[in-house]
Amino acid sequence: MVTKKDKPKNKRKRPSKKKKPSFNVLNLGFRKRVPDRWRKPRGTANKKRRKNKWAGASPKIGYKNSAKTRGMRRDGRTEILVRGMPDMEKLKEMKERENIIIRFSGSIGRKKRTEMAAMAKEIGVNVLNFKIG
């Protein structure tokens, strides 16, 4: 039997995100030709624009997650997109790097990726989309 003392303590967990409804156009599911997507209701007589409850929810700022949670992965780390060497230099100057994972931009070539991956290894930051060796 595993007790609380036996569990690893270093496991991070992302703070829970808010639950939000699916935002769909009016009449989704009732008409065959209405696709599953969101378009802002603009008609003067549109029931969804008039905010009738039965028409379903519309996106608004209240559904936004907290600043701590936004951009966070499931393991509790923050993902940063690196577009070049200046971004790596900024990472080098950062103090808290243990909760950061980097992803290289698709526009970076193999030679620069290799250099930047070596720098990331030196700093102690994990890279998502490049393996050394």
Q: What is the gist of this entry?
A:
The protein is built from two helices and three strands. With 133 residues, it is α/β, with parallel strands linked by helices. It folds into two domains: 20-64, no CATH class; 78-127, no CATH class.
Describe the structure.
- With 133 residues, the chain is an alpha/beta fold.
- It has two domains: 45 residues, no CATH class; 50 residues, no CATH class.
- The chain has two helices and three strands.
- Strands 1-2-3 form a three-stranded parallel β-sheet, covered by helices on one side.
- Helix 1 packs parallel to helix 2.
- It is elongated, with a radius of gyration of 22 Å.
- The relative contact order is 0.13.
- The model has no long low-confidence stretch (mean pLDDT 87).
Annotate the secondary structure layout.
Blueprint: E1 78-82, H1 85-93, E2 100-104, H2 110-123, E3 126-127
Parallel strand pairs: 1-2, 2-3
Helix pairs in contact: 1-2
List keywords for this structure.
alpha/beta; 2 domains; 133 residues
Helix/strand order, N-terminal first = EHEHE
**Helix/strand/pairing class, anyone?**
alpha/beta
Q: What is the gyration radius calculated from CA atoms?
A: 22 Å
The rough form would be described as elongated
Total count of helical runs of at least 4 residues? 2
Helical proportion? 10-25%
Cα(first) to Cα(last) distance is 41 Å
Number of domains: 2
Mean pLDDT figure: 87
Largest beta sheet: what is the strand line-up?
Answer: 1-2-3
